[in-house]
Amino acid sequence: MKLTTKQLTLCAVLTAMALALSYLENFFPLSLAIPIPGIKLGLANVVTLFALYALGPAQALLILLARCFLGAVFAGNMSALIFSLLGGVSAMAVMILLSRLGGLSVYGVSVGGAAAHSCGQVAAAVLTLGNTAPVFYLPVLLLVSLFTGALTGLIAVCLFRALDHTDLMKA
Amino acid sequence: MSVKPSPKLRPSGYDALVALAVVALAAALGFWMWRGGTQQGLTAVILVDGERVEQVALRELDHPEERTLTAGGYTLHLRLFPDGAEMESADCPTQDCVHTGRITRSGQSIVCLPGRVIVRLEGAAVNDGGPDIVIG
Questions:
Q1: Fewest beta carbons within 10 Å, which of A27, A36, A53, A110?
Q2: Residues of A with CB below 8 A from B116's CB?
């Protein structure tokens, strides 16, 4: 994959933003309201969603992988990598597919991605624990993903509207 | 792979279909998991790092009992009741297991991901094909 300087810079900035958002959402622990392992707002998905539309699937995937690896390194917790990777890649795959179907808005794509992220994280928990017990949480996680997906979709829509007059979307 | 999709910013009816599909999946999974649930003859199965370390027949408990589990560098205090189980306290960073509260139906679990601990409730077998009682 050949990147222009502008694209490379955008990828780096978006990766940094995704990492910052991942850190930021620790201050809004959704698990206090809904006590389920791994439940969170998924604010970093705003960046993935934005990158998918602004830069295309290949660069969005690059940003996602960089965010997952750097997030695990900075947190000093490499065992968390399988959770972010499986969740993130599942969400990305579903969002790429849904964004190409036509007819779906950013909201629908975001909700689909959030649901896929939950499925990926539960799959990671099943693999890590060697037990299917975490599947018990999946129905609640899926319902919560309706709200988190709609929220990240709304933030992404605001971002697209705010940047509509710039040439960022033509990168 | 390199072709960028163009974002549609207004919600459409197709978005509702995605939401409905997610709700349907959640409902189907929830129904599948809860239909076999029972509150009779519960057994608490304690697994640490994939290994079954203990199982306790809850109906045989006269009073609440406590277990201290040490796993993954964390210490968890589990309370077992005649009708369920709850993680009373834990020094793991997420505390999700503590916030889960008391579980009271077969099929329910308390999961501590950092400690790799699972407490699962199993119900009595409804019908094992054998006789209910042997007399004479």
A1: A27
A2: 128-129
Instruction: Reduce the DSSP state of residue A134 to 3 states and report it.
Output: helix
Which chain A residues are within 8 Å of B11, Cβ to Cβ?
105, 107-108
The Cα of B3 is separated from the nearest Cα of chain A by a number of Å equal to 6
Residues of chain B contacting residue A106, judged by C-beta atoms under 8 Å apart: 7-9
The CATH number that applies at residue A96 is: 1.10.1760.20
pLDDT, tens digit, 9 for 90 and up, residues A16-59? 999 999 888 878 777 777 777 777 888 899 999 999 999 999 99
User: What tokens were used for A14?
Assistant: 């978006």
Domain of B54, CATH number, reads 2.60.320.10
pLDDT, tens only, A98-156? 999 888 999 999 999 999 999 999 999 899 888 888 888 899 999 999 999 999 999 99
DSSP code at position B43: E
Task: Round to whole Å and give the CA distance between A142 and B26.
Answer: 6
- ipTM associated with this complex: 0.85
